[in-house]
């Protein structure tokens, strides 16, 4: 049994390893190095380093040490293969990178050439003249402002006169616009002038209160019917400069800024007719009224031009307006309660601060050569804020009642903003023609 165990150990060590063992330790202490060629139940044949072979009985073997030379050789071979593959991989990656860089460079050159073509196509140097006619609506701030003063007088005044008009504040108009437009590559200069004229009918009622005269405090009141007519004029002058940050032959977007001026004027005749009062006073009268306003300020915004289907163009502007200016209202009244007549007049003078927007959209189609036709729609709305002002009045007998003076000066400044949001409006749709001169 004691002899079997060493044999089993040797067999176990031998068969659990590889035949590529290179060191055999004998029980006698001898050590042989080489490569195991064959082995059977009793003998192990080993090839020594000098090329000779030796047969060793298994009973004489104490220990077999397996060599790692083959593994070591394998490890040495594998790095050589890995380096080669790594080199091939690096060469492949470098080729792909170079290919990608070439593609990017080609794309960049293509885009650059395309952009150069766009800039070349977007170049422009011309002067264009336009004229259009149409119709729309307009409103100046003073007529509704005066109407609100009359309503305030009707509510808070116990004597004198006040009226309520049913006449719409917005009046229909016929308008015309002249425009010069100069373009030089990225820059544009535009001068635009618009004039709108309209007529309107006056209607409403007027309340009148008279003192009884003498020591009596009795009063005599009557209500007259208002009718009449008027005409209005609206003028607007704009000068604007534009700049294109990114010129494009198809769609051009611009930054706009400029100066704005507005003038409004209206003249109207208002007839007030009613029956003779109980005390024999004739309440009939005729008033000739005139309003004037002058705004000045600046504008800024964006504009665009889109060209499509070779001959069509859509242009537009969206602008913010910031303006201020004075306005005046004059009324010359001829009363028929005395012979031949009695003349009174008064005046309003106020300052306004106005902000708002203007939107223009223009569709153009080229007819032939440099001649084209267009349709344009425009809308401007200014919200007016009362800044300061006063009322001057000159009656034949003067006005000595401090309460009435206080109402006329204090009332409009404090009550008007609460009762009415004053606006200045101009809107129209026009058709017209353009002609372009190229340089």
Count of individual helical segments: 4
Order of helices and strands: HEEEEEHEHEEEEEEEEEHE
Low-confidence stretches: 7-19, 69-78, 213-217, 395-407
What's the overall average pLDDT, rounded? 81
Q: How helix-rich are the residues, as a percent range?
A: 10-25%
- Total strand count, please? 16
End-to-end distance: 121 Å
Largest β-sheet summary: 10 strands, antiparallel, barrel
Strand order of the biggest β-sheet: 6-8-9-10-11-12-13-14-15-16
The structural class is: alpha+beta
Strand % is: over 45%
Dominant shape = elongated
Structure description:
With 439 residues, the protein is α+β, with helices and mostly antiparallel strands. 23% of the residues lie in helices and 58% in strands. The chain has a ten-stranded antiparallel beta barrel with strand order 6-8-9-10-11-12-13-14-15-16. A hairpin with a 4-residue loop joins β3 and β4. α3 packs across α4. It is elongated.
């Amino acid at each position: 049994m004691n002899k079997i165990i060493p044999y089993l150990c040797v067999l176990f060590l031998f068969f659990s390893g590889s035949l590529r063992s290179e060191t055999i330790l004998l029980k006698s202490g001898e050590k042989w190095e080489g490569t195991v060629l064959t082995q059977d139940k009793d003998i192990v044949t080993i090839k020594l380093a000098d090329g000779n072979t030796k047969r060793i009985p298994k009973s004489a073997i104490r220990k077999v040490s397996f060599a790692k030379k083959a593994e070591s050789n394998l490890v040495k071979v594998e790095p050589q293969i890995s380096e080669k593959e790594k080199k091939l991989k690096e060469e492949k990656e470098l080729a792909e990178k170079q290919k990608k860089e070439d593609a990017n460079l080609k794309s960049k050159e293509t885009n650059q050439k395309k952009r150069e073509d766009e800039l070349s196509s977007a170049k422009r140097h011309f002067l264009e003249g336009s004229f259009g006619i149409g119709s729309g609506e307009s409103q100046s701030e003073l007529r509704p402002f005066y109407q609100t003063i009359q309503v305030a007088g009707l509510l808070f005044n116990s004597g004198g006169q006040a009226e309520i008009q049913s006449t719409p504040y917005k009046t229909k108009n016929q308008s015309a616009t002249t425009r010069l437009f100069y373009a030089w590559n990225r820059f544009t200069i535009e001068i635009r002038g618009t004039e709108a004229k309209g007529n309107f009918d006056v209607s409403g009622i007027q309340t009148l209160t008279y003192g009884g005269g003498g020591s009596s405090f009795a009063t005599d009141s009557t209500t007259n019917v208002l009718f009449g007519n008027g005409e209005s004029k609206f003028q607007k002058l704009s000068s604007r400069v534009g700049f294109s940050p990114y010129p494009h032959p198809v769609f051009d977007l611009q930054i706009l800024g400029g100066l704005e001026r507005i003038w409004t004027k209206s003249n109207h005749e208002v007839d007030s007719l009613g029956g003779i009062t109980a005390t024999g006073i004739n309440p009939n009268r005729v008033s000739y009224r005139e309003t004037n306003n002058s705004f000045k300020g600046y504008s800024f915004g964006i504009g665009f031009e889109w060209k499509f289907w070779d001959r069509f163009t859509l242009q537009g502007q969206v602008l913010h307006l910031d303006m201020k200016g004075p306005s005046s209202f004059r009324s010359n009244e001829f009363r028929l309660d005395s012979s031949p007549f009695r003349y009174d007049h008064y005046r309003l003078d106020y300052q306004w601060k106005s902000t708002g927007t203007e939107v223009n959209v223009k569709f153009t189609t080229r007819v032939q050569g440099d001649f084209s036709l267009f349709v344009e729609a425009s809308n401007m709305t200014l919200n007016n804020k009362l800044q300061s002002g006063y009322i001057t009045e000159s009656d034949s007998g003067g006005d000595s009642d401090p309460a009435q003076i206080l109402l006329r000066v204090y009332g409009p400044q404090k009550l008007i903003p609460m009762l009415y949001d004053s606006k200045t409006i101009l809107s129209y749709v026009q058709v017209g023609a353009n002609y372009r001169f190229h340089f």
